[in-house]
Amino acid sequence: MAKITTGWGGGAGVRYAHTVGQVREAEAELMERLPPGALMQRAAAGLAVACAGRLGRVYGSRVVLLVGSGDNGADALWAGARLAARGAAVTALLTGSPREDALAALLAAGGRVSETLPRCGLVVDGLVGIGGRGPLRPAAAAFATQVSGRDVVAVDLPSGVDADTGAVEGVAVRAALTVTFGTYKPGLLVGAGRGHAGRVGLVDIGLAPGPAPVEALEAGDVARLLPTGKAVSDKYSRGVLGVAAGSQTYTGAAVLCVGAAVRAGAGMVRFAGASHAAEQVRSRWPEVVVSEADGAEVTQAGRVQAWVVGPGLGTDERAAATVEAVLAQDVPVLVDADALTVCAEHLDWLRRRSAPTLLTPHDREFARFGEPVGSDRVGAARRLATELGVTVLLKGDATVVTDATGPARVNPTGSPLLATAGTGDVLSGGCGALLAQGLSALDAGSVGAWLHGRAGVLSADGATTSAGAVLVSWPDAVREAVRLAVMKGQR
Fold this sequence. Notes:
By secondary structure, this protein is α/β, with parallel strands linked by helices. Helix content is 40%, strand content 16%. The chain has helices at residues 20-31, 38-55, 71-85, 100-108, 138-146, 191-197, 219-225, 252-263, 275-284, 317-327, 338-344, 347-351, 363-367, 377-388, 423-436, 441-460, 467-487; strands at residues 4-6, 15-17, 62-67, 89-94, 112-114, 122-126, 152-155, 177-181, 199-203, 214-216, 240-244, 268-273, 289-292, 306-309, 333-335, 357-359, 391-394, 400-402, 408-410. The strands form two sheets. Strands 2-10-19-18-17-16-15-14-11-12-13 form an eleven-stranded mixed β-sheet, sandwiched between helices. Strands 1-9-8-7-6-3-4-5 form an eight-stranded mixed β-sheet, covered by helices on one side. It is elongated.
């Protein structure tokens, strides 16, 4: 029986996603070794199991199949035949010319074909396969619109979603569950596709598509990457983070960024900034070493293992001098908020660095570097990382973290709850603390984004949240990741 795995970020290990081209090549290699039709039967068996689980009781249930001309439509028909054989009333709505053998199997099992959408308990979307590009054709778009709000299981990918990018042009099916085959597709993890996919289940059909260009960390991966103290650790060996943030006008960003660094486990935090911001940080976080400093003087705050620069800093000449001085240090630097605006005007400051640099823009800040993000978020982030020789953390509901060489990481724990003032300052402080503790820019960004997302959900507790509440809940997210990892024997 096909094995199905699901997860939101608490599963058994890294979720690897491959492009359509990689999947097609792997399928062709596997089909050469299997009897004709065997690969499709593996997929259909897994799909039928998932649908049965969704229905709860198969006998007497009503199922509608949306069937296109491609392999996804055939998968839906074969799975429908299995459900019909178990006593379900299965109706197929056809667009184009479906596979004749699959349609015959459905009819032989007692299924039927209709031109109108009947009453049903479950809809199976097999309109378009992973090779689909651009808007749905009118007939498919009409079906996608008609099933809006119903319990939909998508076959491999919701119809209307680009498998490689997650882009959606026009109407697309919104699924409660997507059953994908062989490997995850990037479009299920990022962009608009993430919202259309619902919960994603993976059916192992034996594919071996090679190195994945996109991946998503699970709880066990986060727990494994988290820094752990040693018996001989002290506040200096656990990582000292410098924070250059805030201004006379904007003090809250400094307080939030510093607080997150404290909560995220930095051995020591050194804050350097304008006097009013320094006063607020000193009052809220007495464990932090505070220096009142402007411009290039911030780097005289003391020795650090990493810097965060930018939150609430402003973009005037004083702020620019601060950013330039921090970037001149031969330690990892996280560049956020106002420092991104400054750097967009001084790209050479980034390009000449040899130490790791992590940029953390949202879409509007990203556009200041020359081009808008567009529909391909992974491609856009990788392009900027390559051009500047940095690691990019592109914020969003599914944050993307990538450098120029390895796989991009898409965060699975993001939430619209985090779209509130100050949460970005919390993210930068938390990621900065991880940088100071020795994580690479890619690991610090992806682990920090994972914990930030979970902290947002935990702090909201079914309602809404605030940046201050996310900050407080950061250790709760760490404990959750470790607990899940221990439960699964991963730590």
